[in-house]
C-alpha cells in the first residue's frame, strides 16, 4: 500500500518571496503565482507520521557573499520531528527531500528558528512544549544525541504556544528571547544566553497574567517593543515588553494589565501575528476556531484592540478552525489554511497598492472582486427646465431600469422621460435623454430583449403607456441605434385594452437567433397574455407576429422562455406562484387563443419563478430528425431560494411533456434567487455559474462553481426597482446593478466577479463520518464510468467528489447542506442512481443523483474530467419522523437493497437502525418519491450501529444487526417482507407495482422468534460489520470492534424442516488487531477458502489481512500482510475504488481528512 | 440543549444528578472498580486532576461511607472492626490546579502535579514520609483543540506527569489508573507503563461513550525497574531536563515479544467493563413520564454547576454590547 493523495487540515503556511509554501498533512506543497492565480507546482512528503506544523525560512542569501556564499535553509517541523532543506531546492520540482531524513527531536516542537543557516552546519534553536530551549547543530558527522544541547528552563510547565527570536536590538548577540503561552493562561517572557560556553544563563523576565484560559498563540514584535497573546478566553492581548527582555539579571516582573484587549472572535483564537508595530501604530492579525481571521488596530485612548477587517466565508461554512496564516512581505495579501483543506487568499485593506482602482494592466492579478457605486439624484442631473405654465413641476424620480451590459443602462422616470446613462463616459457626458412621453408616467411595463447581429449584442426595448400602447426601440450598449425615423414620431402599437402590468422579454434561449419574444400582461386575470415575436426590419423593430395565450388560474406571468422547434414554437412560462405552464404553438395553426398543454405547480414551493433560461447551448434537432423525442435543458430560479436544473422532454408527437429535476441548489447565501448566469472566466478558462439575488438587505452575487460569495452590496433589500446584467462580451466578468434607493438612482459596477480567491479548494470543515463510492457500472466505456465519492461529515454536509484519474486527487463536485445534524451513514443504491443518508433526529434522506446532466446533442465524447455541472443531485424525499420526544434519536446505520417490479426498478428496501435500539424497514418508492413504512421492531435497549441485508440462496432474506453491546444478531425477515408483498425471485427482491403504492397498512412488528442468532463477538461497540458471500453460498461476516479486535465469522444458513432457518456460526477473533478501536473493514477478495481484507482504526494504521477459510473458523489463520500509517486521525470509513483499467485499485480512508492509498 | 433532552441522550448525566455526583464520570470509576476491584484494601489514595471532584466522591463513598454503612451488618461488623483496628485510617488526597469544593473525608489541595514542591505536600497530608500509597487515580484531560496529534500529546503528557507523581508515592504493588486517549501513539504509552507495572490493561467503562477516544489504563502491581529513582525534579518521558536525557528522549520506547504481540509495539489487552445490563452511554432512552411512585418526572439540576468556562467574560461582553450576542465586525 502506498499513499497517493491527501485532503485534510492545512496546518502551516509561509511565503517564500511570491511563492507560497503550505504544510498539508505530512506534505509540503509549493504554489506559485501564474497569471491571476496560485497554482500548485509540486508536493513532497516531508515526514513519515507528523503533519507539518511550522515553517521557518532562514535569512535570504546575502548577495555580497559572492558566488561562494553558503546557502540558506528552510526549517519545517511537526510534533517531535523536523527537517532542514536547502532553500534553493524548494523551487525545484525534483527536490530530493526524503521523509526518511526527518530528524527526531527530544521533545514536542512549538517553534523553531535558525540561529544561522549558512553552510553545512546550520544551527537551530527549538522551544518545546515543556518551555525548554534546545539547540541543534546540523552536523551529520556527529551522532544524533550529540547534535542537541539542552538549556535549563526557568520554569518547566506545559505550553500550548511559544515564540523565540534572537535579540534583534543587539546584533550578533547570543541572547535568545522566548515568549511562552501556558495551558493555564499565563504568558512568560524569558531570556537565554545561547553561547557555547559551559555557563548557562537563563532568567524569567516577566509573567503576564490576565488571560482567563489557555494561551494558544503568542508573538513578539520585531523590535521587541510589544508582545501579543491570544487565548481560549476569546481575547487578543497586547503587552508592553520594552526593556523587559534581554537583561538576564533583573528580577521577574508580574504584569496584570495588558496595554489593550481585543474582543470579537466567537470561538478560540489559535494565533496572532504583528503586521505593524512601528511608530504610533500597532496592527495585529489573528485567526480562530470561528473560521475568521481578523485585523486589529491598537486604540490607545480606549486601551483596546479594534477589529478593522474581518476575513470570513471562504472556508467551509459549517466547519471549524483556521489553523494557519501567512502574510506576504509587501503586507497586502494574507492567506489562511483551514481544517477544511482550503487555502484562501485575502486582500488586506489600507495597504498602499490596494487603493488602485479601475484600470489595470493585463499582467496584473485581479486582486479581488471590486465594487464601484455611483449615486445620481436625477433632480441634480436634469434641472427642471421647461415646466408648462400653470403646472406644478413634477418631481423627477427613477422608475424602472434596463441594464445594458456592464456599463450602461436605460431608465424611465416618474415624469415620463426615458433616459440613458453610460458610466464609461466622462462625468459631463454620462447621461442622455432619449425621449419624453408624458403618457408613460408611472407605467410599470418597461423591458428589453437581447438579440445578436454578427455576434454583436443588441436590444429591443419595449415601453408602454398607461392605455395599452407600446413603443419599441432598437438600442445597443452605446444607446439608441440610429433609425430611419425620429424616435419621437415612432408608432405606438396597441397591445392590450387596459393598462399593461408588465412586459416580459424571453430569456436567452441559447440559439443565438435574432428573434426576440415578449409577453405583455395586464392587471386583468381573464385577459389573455399577448406573446409577441419581434424582429428588426429596415433597421427598426417590428412586431412580426402576435399570439394570445390563455392564463391558467392563479398564474400571473413572471417570466417566459421560447424555443423554435420543428414547425412550431414552444413557450414555457413561469408564474408568481411557483408554477410552470407550457404552450405549443404550431406554425400552421390559425387558433385565436392558445391554452397551456401542460401545467406544473409548486416547482418553487409557492414562490415566484424569477427566471427561465437554458443552461447550455440548445440546438434544436434538424427537421429531418423529427422522429426523436426532444430534450431541452432548462434552468429556473425562484424566490424559494432555489436554482433548479430541469430536463423538459417532449415526445415526437408533441403530446407528452415531462419535466424532470436534474440538479437542485439552494445556496444559503442567496435565500431569494433572481437569476442564474454562466460566465466564462479568463483566469481559469472555465465556466462559472453565478447566481444573483437578495439576502436580507444585500444584493448578492454567488459563485456556485467555486461555492463562494463573489460580491454583495447593501441596497436595503430587493423590494425596489432594480435591474442587473453582466457584460455582453464573452470574456468579461463584470456586471452592472442599478436600483433606486431614497428616490435616487444607484449604479453599481462589479468587476472581476469570477475572481478565485481559493488557492486550494475547501472540503469538509469537520471530520468525516461516512464515505461511500458509487457502484461500478457494467459498461466501463460509458460516461457513467466515473464513480462518485459521497462523503458525509460532522459538519452536516454531504459532498460529492471524484478521484482524478491521473493525479488521484479527490476533486470536489458539489455539496449539499440539508441535514441539520452530523451525517451518520451514507449508502448508494446498487444502480448508483440514488444515495441514502442518515443523521440524528431521525433524519433519513433520499437523494437522486443524476449523471451526465448536460444533455448533449453532439457526439458522445468522453470527458477528461468531470465538472461541477456534470453531476446533479436532487433531494427526492425525507423519511417521516416517528417521535419528537427523543431529540437525539440517531439513525446510526443504513442498508439499501433494490426491489424490482414487473417493469424494472420499483424502489428500495431501506433498513435503519437507531440509537434507541429500534429497527425500521421502509420501502422507498421511486415513482411516488416517498418512504413507506413496512416493518419495525426493537432489539434490546442498547444503541444499534450496523444493519445489513442479505438474500440467501434458499430464497430467504436475513438481516444482520450489531451495536454497542458487541453482539451480532441475525434476523429472518422473509415473512415480514412477504407480508408486505416483497418476495425473493431469482436472487433479488420483487414486488408487484400495486404493492408499492399501498400505504395505509400499519408497519409489521418484528417478533423475537425471528432472531435466528444473537451472539457476542466483541466486548463493546461493533464499529463495522460487513458480509460477503463465498463460493459455496456460505456467508462470511467481518466485524471490527472498539475492543481493538477484528472478528471473522463463517455462517451456514440452512432451511430446517418446518422450522424456518437454522444458523451455524464459527468465529475467529483477532484481539489487539489494532492499538485502538477498529472502525472499518473493506473486503478485497473472497474465495471459497481464502479472504483478503483491509482494516483501519483510530490508531491511524491501515492493515491488509489474509484469512484462510475453514469449516470451523476457530482454526483459521488470519495474518497481517501489509501495514501502513495514514495521516488521517479518527478514521471512520474506508471505501475501495477500481481505476478505469479495472486493475489498479485505490483505497479511500476517511476521518479528519481523506487519504487515498494505492493498493 | 435543555436539561431534559440531555437526560434522554445521556443516561449517566441523569443518574449522576439523581445520585448526587458532581459529574457523570463518577460511573467510570465505579465501573472500573467493579471490574478490577481497585478499592480492595485501599487506605491511601491520591486523586490527580480531581476537579470537580466526582472521582473523589466515589473514593469517599466507597472507602469511608461504605464502611460506616456496613456497620449495620452484624457479620461484617466484626470483620470491619478488626480491619479498622489493623489498618490506619483511610486517607484520600485530591489534587487540582483549579479550586474544588471540599468533600467529606477528602483532603483537597490546589497544586500542580508536575511541580517538585507538590510531592512533600502530598506526603505531608498523607502523614507519611515514604511512598506507601495504595492507589493513584487520574481523570485529567485537556480541553481538546481538534488537532488530534497535539491533543493526544498533551493528554499523554498529563498521563506521564501523573505517572511520575505516582512513581514517587506508590508502594510496591500499588495500582495506578489514568485516562488515556487511544490515538495513534497509544501503544508507546502502553509500553512505558508496562515497564513499571506487572499488569497493564486498557479498560473502557460502558459509561464512557463509544464514540469517544477516551479509555482508562489500569496498571496493577507497581514494580519499578531495578535502580529506578523516582523524582519530580528529573521526571521521565516529559521532555529532557538535562543533556543526558536527550538520547532516551529521542529513542522510542517499544516492548516487543511480550505476550506475543503480532509485530511492532506491545498493545495492552482491552477490557470493556460495566455489565451489559447497565445503561448504555450511546443509547437514547425514552424516559417514563412518571416515576415508580406515579409522580411526574422532573429533570433535576446538576449537583454542581459546571466550572466557569474561559470564555465566560467574552459571553458577558457580547451580552452587554447587544447585537444579537455577536460582536460586530
Q: What does this 3D model show about the protein?
A:
The complex is a heterodimer of chains A (about 1150) and B (about 325). By secondary structure, chain A is mainly β. Chain A has a domain at about 10-255 and about 325-340: Methylamine Dehydrogenase, Chain H (7 Propeller), CATH 2.130.10.10. Chain A has four helices and 90 strands. The radius of gyration of chain A is 34 Å and the shape is flat. The termini of chain A are close together. The model of chain A is unreliable at about 65-70, about 350-365 and about 855-865 (pLDDT under 50). In chain B, a hairpin with an 8-residue loop joins β6 and β7. The longest helix of chain B has 22 residues, at about 150-170. Chain B has about 325 residues and is α/β, with parallel strands linked by helices. In chain B, strands 3-2-1-4-5-7-6-8 form an eight-stranded mixed sheet, sandwiched between helices. Chain B has helices at about 5-10, 10-20, 25-35, 55-70, 75-85, 120-125, 150-170, 185-195, 245-250, 310-320, and strands spanning about 45-50, 90-95, 105-110, 135-140, 170-180, 195-205, 215-220, 270-275. Chain B has one domain (about 10-280): Vaccinia Virus protein VP39 (Rossmann fold), CATH 3.40.50. At the A-B interface, β13 and β87 of A face α1, α7, α8, α9 and β8 of B. Chain A: Belongs to the WD repeat WDR6 family.
Amino acid at each position: 500500500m502506498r499513499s497517493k493523495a491527501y485532503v485534510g487540515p492545512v496546518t502551516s503556511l509561509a511565503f517564500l518571496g511570491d511563492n507560497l509554501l503550505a504544510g498539508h498533512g505530512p506534505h509540503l506543497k509549493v504554489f506559485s503565482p501564474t497569471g491571476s492565480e496560485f497554482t500548485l507546482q509540486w508536493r513532497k512528503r516531508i515526514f513519515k507520521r507528523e503533519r507539518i506544523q511550522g515553517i521557518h525560512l532562514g535569512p535570504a542569501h546575502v548577495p555580497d557573499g559572492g558566488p561562494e556564499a553558503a546557502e540558506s535553509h528552510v526549517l519545517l517541523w511537526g510534533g517531535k520531528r523536523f527537517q532542514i532543506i536547502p532553500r534553493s531546492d524548494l523551487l525545484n520540482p525534483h527536490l530530493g527531500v526524503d521523509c526518511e531524513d526527518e530528524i527526531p527531536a527530544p521533545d514536542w516542537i512549538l517553534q523553531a528558528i535558525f540561529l544561522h543557516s549558512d553552510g553545512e552546519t546550520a544551527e537551530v534553536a527549538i522551544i518545546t512544549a515543556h518551555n525548554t530551549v534546545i539547540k541543534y547543530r546540523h552536523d551529520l558527522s556527529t551522532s544524533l544525541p550529540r547534535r542537541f544541547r539542552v538549556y535549563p528552563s526557568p520554569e518547566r510547565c506545559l505550553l500550548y504556544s511559544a515564540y523565540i527570536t534572537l535579540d534583534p536590538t543587539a546584533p550578533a548577540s547570543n541572547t535568545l528571547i522566548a515568549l511562552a503561552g501556558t495551558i493555564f493562561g499565563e504568558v512568560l517572557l524569558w531570556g537565554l544566553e545561547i553561547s557555547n560556553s559551559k555557563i548557562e544563563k537563563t532568567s524569567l523576565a516577566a509573567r503576564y497574567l490576565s488571560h482567563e484560559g489557555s494561551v494558544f498563540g503568542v508573538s513578539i514584535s520585531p523590535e521587541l517593543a510589544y508582545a501579543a497573546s491570544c487565548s481560549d478566553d476569546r481575547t487578543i492581548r497586547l503587552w508592553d515588553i520594552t526593556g523587559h527582555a534581554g537583561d538576564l539579571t533583573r528580577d521577574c516582573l508580574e504584569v496584570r494589565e495588558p496595554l489593550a484587549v481585543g474582543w470579537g472572535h466567537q470561538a478560540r483564537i489559535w494565533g496572532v501575528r504583528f503586521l505593524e508595530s512601528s511608530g504610533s501604530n500597532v496592527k495585529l492579525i489573528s485567526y480562530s476556531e470561528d473560521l475568521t481571521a481578523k485585523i486589529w488596530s491598537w486604540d490607545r485612548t480606549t486601551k483596546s484592540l479594534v477589529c478593522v477587517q474581518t476575513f470570513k466565508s471562504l472556508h467551509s461554512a459549517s466547519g471549524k478552525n483556521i489553523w494557519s496564516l501567512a502574510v506576504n512581505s509587501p503586507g497586502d495579501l494574507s492567506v489562511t489554511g483551514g481544517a477544511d483543506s482550503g487555502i484562501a487568499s485575502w486582500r488586506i485593506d489600507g495597504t498602499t497598492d490596494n487603493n488602485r482602482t479601475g484600470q489595470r494592466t493585463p499582467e496584473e492579478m485581479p486582486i479581488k472582486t471590486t465594487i464601484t457605486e455611483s449615486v445620481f439624484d436625477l433632480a441634480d442631473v436634469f434641472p427642471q427646465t421647461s415646466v408648462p405654465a400653470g403646472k406644478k413641476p413634477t418631481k423627477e424620480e427613477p422608475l424602472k431600469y434596463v441594464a445594458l451590459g456592464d456599463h450602461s443602462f436605460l431608465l424611465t422616470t416618474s415624469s415620463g422621460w426615458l433616459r440613458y446613462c453610460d458610466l464609461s463616459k466622462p462625468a459631463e457626458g454620462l447621461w442622455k435623454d432619449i425621449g419624453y412621453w408624458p403618457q408613460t408616467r408611472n407605467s410599470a411595463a418597461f423591458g428589453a430583449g437581447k438579440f445578436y447581429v454578427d455576434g454583436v449584442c443588441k436590444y429591443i426595448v419595449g415601453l408602454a403607456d398607461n392605455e395599452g400602447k407600446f413603443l419599441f426601440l432598437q438600442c445597443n450598449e452605446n444607446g439608441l441605434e440610429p433609425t430611419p425615423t425620429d424616435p419621437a414620431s415612432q408608432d405606438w402599437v396597441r397591445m392590450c385594452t387596459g393598462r399593461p402590468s408588465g412586459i416580459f422579454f424571453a430569456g436567452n434561449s441559447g440559439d443565438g437567433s435574432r428573434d426576440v419574444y415578449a409577453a405583455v400582461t395586464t392587471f386583468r386575470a381573464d385577459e389573455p397574455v399577448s406573446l409577441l415575436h419581434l424582429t428588426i426590419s429596415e433597421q427598426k423593430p417590428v412586431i412580426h407576429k402576435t399570439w394570445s395565450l390563455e392564463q391558467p388560474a392563479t398564474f400571473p406571468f413572471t417570466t417566459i422562455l421560447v424555443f423554435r422547434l420543428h414547425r412550431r414554437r414552444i413557450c414555457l412560462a413561469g408564474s408568481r406562484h411557483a408554477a410552470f405552464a407550457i404552450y405549443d404553438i404550431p406554425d400552421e395553426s390559425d387558433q385565436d387563443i392558445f391554452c397551456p398543454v401542460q401545467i406544473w405547480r409548486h416547482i418553487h414551493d409557492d414562490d415566484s419563478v424569477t427566471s427561465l433560461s437554458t443552461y447550455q447551448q440548445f440546438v434544436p434537432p434538424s427537421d429531418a430528425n423529427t422522429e426523436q423525442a426532444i430534450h431541452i435543458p432548462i434552468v429556473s430560479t425562484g424566490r424559494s431560494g432555489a436554482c433548479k436544473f430541469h430536463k423538459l422532454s417532449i415526445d415526437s408527437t408533441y403530446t407528452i411533456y415531462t419535466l424532470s429535476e436534474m440538479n437542485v441548489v439552494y445556496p444559503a447565501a442567496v435565500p431569494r434567487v433572481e437569476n442564474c448566469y454562466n460566465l466564462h472566466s479568463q483566469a481559469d478558462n472555465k465556466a462559472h455559474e453565478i447566481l444573483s439575488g437578495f439576502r436580507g438587505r444585500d444584493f448578492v452575487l454567488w459563485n456556485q462553481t467555486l461555492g463562494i460569495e463573489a460580491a454583495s452590496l447593501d441596497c436595503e433589500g430587493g423590494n425596489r426597482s432594480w435591474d442587473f446584467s453582466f457584460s455582453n462580451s464573452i470574456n468579461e466578468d463584470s456586471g452592472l446593478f442599478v436600483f433606486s434607493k431614497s428616490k435616487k438612482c444607484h449604479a453599481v459596477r462589479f468587476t472581476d466577479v469570477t475572481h478565485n480567491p481559493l488557492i486550494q479548494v475547501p472540503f469538509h470543515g469537520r471530520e468525516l463520518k461516512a464515505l461511500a463510492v458509487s457502484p461500478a457500472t457494467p459498461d466501463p466505456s460509458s460516461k457513467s464510468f466515473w464513480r462518485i465519492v459521497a462523503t458525509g461529515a460532522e459538519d452536516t454536509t454531504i459532498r460529492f467528489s471524484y478521484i482524478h484519474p491521473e493525479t488521484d486527487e479527490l476533486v470536489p463536485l458539489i455539496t449539499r447542506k440539508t441535514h441539520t445534524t452530523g451525517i451518520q451513514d451514507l449508502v448508494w443504491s446498487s444502480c448508483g442512481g440514488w444515495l441514502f443518508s442518515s443523521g440524528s433526529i431521525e433524519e433519513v434522506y433520499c437523494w437522486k443523483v443524476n449523471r451526465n446532466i448536460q444533455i448533449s446533442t453532439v457526439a458522445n465524447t468522453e470527458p477528461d474530467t468531470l465538472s461541477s455541472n456534470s453531476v446533479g443531485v436532487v433531494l427526492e424525499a425525507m423519511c417521516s419522523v416517528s417521535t419528537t420526544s427523543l431529540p437525539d434519536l440517531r439513525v446510526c446505520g443504513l442498508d439499501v437493497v433494490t426491489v424490482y417490479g414487473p417493469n424494472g426498478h420499483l424502489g428500495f428496501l431501506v433498513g435503519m437502525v437507531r440509537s434507541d435500539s429500534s429497527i425500521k424497514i421502509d420501502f422507498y418508492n421511486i415513482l411516488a418519491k416517498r418512504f413507506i413504512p413496512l416493518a419495525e421492531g426493537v432489539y434490546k435497549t442498547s444503541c444499534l450501529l450496523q444493519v445489513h441485508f442479505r438474500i440467501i440462496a434458499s430464497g430467504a432474506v436475513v438481516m444482520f444487526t450489531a451495536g454497542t453491546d458487541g453482539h451480532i444478531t441475525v434476523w429472518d425477515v422473509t415473512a415480514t417482507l412477504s407480508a408486505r408483498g416483497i418476495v425473493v425471485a431469482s436472487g433479488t427482491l420483487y414486488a408487484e407495482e400495486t404493492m408499492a403504492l399501498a400505504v395505509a397498512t400499519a408497519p409489521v412488528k418484528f417478533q423475537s422468534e425471528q432472531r435466528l442468532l444473537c451472539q457476542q463477538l466483541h466486548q463493546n461497540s461493533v464499529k463495522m460489520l460487513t458480509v460477503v458471500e463465498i463460493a459455496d453460498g456460505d456467508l462470511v461476516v467481518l466485524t471490527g470492534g472498539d475492543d481493538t479486535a477484528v472478528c471473522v465469522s463463517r455462517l451456514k444458513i440452512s432451511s430446517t424442516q418446518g422450522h424456518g432457518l437454522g444458523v451455524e456460526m464459527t468465529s475467529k477473533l483477532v484481539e489487539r488487531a489494532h492499538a485502538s478501536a477498529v472502525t472499518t473493514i473493506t473486503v478485497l477478495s473472497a474465495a471459497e477458502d481464502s479472504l483478503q481484507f483491509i482494516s483501519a482504526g483510530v490508531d491511524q494504521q491501515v492493515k491488509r489481512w489474509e484469512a484462510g477459510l475453514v469449516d470451523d473458523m476457530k482454526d483459521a489463520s488470519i495474518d497481517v500482510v501489509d501495514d501502513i500509517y495514514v495521516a488521517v486521525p479518527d478514521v471512520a470509513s474506508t471505501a475501495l475504488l477500481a481505476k478505469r483499467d479495472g486493475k489498479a485499485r485505490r483505497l479511500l480512508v476517511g476521518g479528519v481528512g481523506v487519504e487515498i492509498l494505492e493498493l | 440543549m435543555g436539561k431534559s433532552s440531555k437526560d434522554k441522550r445521556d443516561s449517566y448525566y441523569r443518574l449522576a444528578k439523581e445520585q448526587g455526583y458532581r459529574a457523570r464520570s463518577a460511573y467510570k470509576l465505579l465501573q472500573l472498580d467493579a471490574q478490577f476491584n481497585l478499592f480492595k484494601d485501599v487506605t491511601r489514595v491520591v486523586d490527580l486532576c480531581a476537579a470537580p471532584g466526582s472521582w473523589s466522591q466515589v473514593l469517599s463513598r466507597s472507602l469511608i461511607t461504605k464502611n460506616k454503612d456496613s456497620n449495620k451488618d452484624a457479620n461484617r461488623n466484626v470483620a470491619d472492626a478488626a480491619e479498622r483496628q489493623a489498618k490506619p485510617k483511610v486517607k484520600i488526597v485530591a489534587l487540582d490546579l483549579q479550586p474544588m469544593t471540599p468533600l467529606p473525608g477528602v483532603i483537597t489541595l490546589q497544586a500542580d502535579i508536575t511541580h517538585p514542591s507538590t510531592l512533600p505536600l502530598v506526603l505531608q497530608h498523607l502523614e507519611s514520609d515514604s511512598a506507601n500509597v495504595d492507589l493513584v487515580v487520574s481523570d485529567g484531560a485537556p480541553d481538546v483543540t481538534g488537532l488530534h496529534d497535539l491533543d493526544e500529546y498533551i493528554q499523554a503528557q498529563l498521563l506521564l506527569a501523573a505517572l511520575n507523581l505516582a512513581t514517587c508515592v506508590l508502594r510496591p504493588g500499588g495500582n495506578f489508573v489514568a485516562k488515556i486517549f487511544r490515538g495513534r501513539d497509544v501503544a508507546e504509552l502502553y509500553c512505558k507503563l508496562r515497564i513499571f507495572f506487572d499488569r497493564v490493561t486498557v479498560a473502557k467503562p460502558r459509561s464512557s461513550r463509544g464514540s469517544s477516544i477516551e479509555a482508562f489504563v489500569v496498571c496493577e502491581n507497581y514494580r519499578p525497574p531495578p535502580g529506578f529513582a523516582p523524582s519530580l525534579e528529573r521526571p521521565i518521558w516529559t521532555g529532557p531536563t538535562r543533556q543526558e536525557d536527550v538520547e532516551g528522549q529521542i529513542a522510542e520506547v517499544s516492548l516487543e515479544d511480550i505476550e506475543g504481540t503480532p509485530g511492532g509495539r506491545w498493545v495492552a489487552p482491552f477490557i470493556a467493563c460495566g455489565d451489559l445490563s447497565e445503561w448504555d452511554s450511546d443509547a437514547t432512552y425514552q424516559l417514563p413520564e412518571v416515576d415508580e411512585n406515579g409522580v411526574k418526572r422532573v429533570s433535576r439540576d446538576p449537583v454542581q454547576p459546571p466550572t466557569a468556562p474561559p470564555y465566560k467574560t467574552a459571553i458577558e461582553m457580547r451580552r452587554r454590547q447587544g447585537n444579537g450576542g455577536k460582536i460586530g465586525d
